[in-house]
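Predict the holo structure. Ligand: pyridoxal-5'-phosphate.
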Amino acid sequence: MKYISTRGDAPALNFEDVVLTGLATDGGLYVPESLPTFTPEQIASWKGLSYSDLAFKIIAPFVDGEIPDADLKAIIDKSYKKFRHPAIAPLVQTGHNEWILELFQGPTLAFKDFALQFLGNTFDYILKKRDQKVVVMGATSGDTGSAAIEGCRDCDNIDIFILHPNKRVSDVQRKQMTTVINKNVHNIALEANFDDCQNMVKASFNDQSFLPEGRQLAAVNSINWARIMAQIVYYFYAGLALGAPSNKVSFSVPTGNFGDIFAGYLAKQMGLPIDQLVIATNSNDILHRCISDNDHTKKPLLHSLSPSMDIMVSSNFERMLFELYDRNGGAIKQLMDDFKSGVMTLEQGPLAKAQALFSSYKLDDQEMLDVISDVFNKTEYLLDPHTAIGVQAARKTRRSQDVPMVCLATAHPAKFPEAIQKAGQSEEPALPNHMSDLFDREEQYDVLDNDIQAVQAFIAGNISA
Ligand SMILES: *Cc1c(COP(=O)(O)O)cnc(C)c1O
C-alpha cells in the first residue's frame, strides 16, 4: 500500500515511512492511495470478535504485509492491554436507540489512547528494527499530550516534546502530562493558544534544521495517518454490536481537528453502513459554518469548557477536502493557499457532497451544561463536556429513531471537574483508581514564550545522545 499527499506533489511513501513522517514535503497530509473495502459478508463474519482481533482485520490491509502479521497482531494486542474495561470500547444506553460509546477506558481517560497506544508501540517496533532514533514533537489542546506521552514514555528511541497552551488545559490534563518524570519526556507550556502551538509544530516539521545531525521529527498529532487508521476500528466495533451490517447505524462525533470523524467517514467508505455522521462543535464552529453555510472563515479562538475542541483550523479537514474534490491534489493546494487569507469557499459540487455526508450542530457552554444536567437527572449517567456536545448534536439533527445513534464519549468526566460543577453536579467525579493520587505526584515542565527560536533551542538542548 502506498500513501500519497493531499497536495499531489510529494513522493509516495510506504506504511512504515508514513508513520515516521509528519507533513508531506508539499505541506499536504498523507492518505492511502486506495481504501480497502469489505463486503457485508466479510463484516458479518466479524461479529463477536474481540476488540483487538477486529482491529487486526481492519488495520492489516493498510499495513499490507510491511510488518509481518504476527508482529502486527502483537503490537495491537499490547496496545489495548492497558485499557481498564474488558470490552475496550463499551456501549451504554442513554435513550431510545441512543448509545454512548465509552472511548475513555484507556490509560489517560480520553479516546486518543486508542490511536496513541498503538502509535507508540508501532514507533517502538519500527525504530528498533531500523536502529534509528527520532524526536516526537506535538501540540496538545489537552488530551493528545498525555496520551502521546503515555504511548511513548517507554520507547528508548524517542525523545518526546509536547507543547500545551499555558494555563489553558485543565489541571487534570496538565498533571497527567507533567507528572511523567522520564528523562525522554519534556513538557513545554507555551504562552500562547492551541493554534499557535499547532502552528509552531507545523513550522518545525517544515524546517527541521534545528535538530542534530541524523534526527528527524515524528508526529503524534492526527496529521499522522496511523492515528486516523486506528480510530476506524471502533466505528466497526460499535456498528457490529448494534446490528451492522444488516442494519444501519449513525454516529455523532465531538469534533476539533476532524481526525475522529474523518475515521468515521473512512469506515463508511470501507463498507460499514453508516446512515448519519454528525459533526458536533462548540463555539469554535468553523466546521459547522462550513457545512451549513459554506462559511469556512477563521475567527478568533474562544476558550470554552470543552477545551479539547478549542481549535479553529482543523488540520484533518484537508483530508476530507481531498475526498470532496475527487482527490485532485492541485485543487487542494490552491484551496489551502487561498485559505492563508483566512477564508475558504468550497465549490458547489464538493459542498453538496459534504452536506450529503454530514450533519452538523454547534453548542455554546451553557447549552452544553444543560445537557450534562438533563442526562444526569434522567439516567444518572455523567457525560464529560465534549461528549455532551455530541449527545445534543445527535438529538438535534437525528433523522430516524429507528437507526441506532452512537455518541462517541471522547473523555471521562473526571478530566473536567470545573464543567461538571458548573453543570450543577455537587459531587466531583472521581478519578479512576490508577490515577487517584494524581494530585500528589511531582510535576515538571518549562514555560516558554511564543517564540519558535526559543522552543527549537530548548528542544535541541534536551535531546538525548
Ligand atoms: C481530541 C478531542 C476531541 C476532538 O477530536 P478530533 O479528532 O480532533 O476531532 C474531542 N473530545 C476530546 C475529549 C478530545 O480529547
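Residues 110, 112, 143, 222, 254-260, 308-309, 386, 410-411 surround pyridoxal-5'-phosphate (CB under 6 Å). Residues 91-110+225-422 form a domain with the Rossmann fold fold (CATH 3.40.50.1100).
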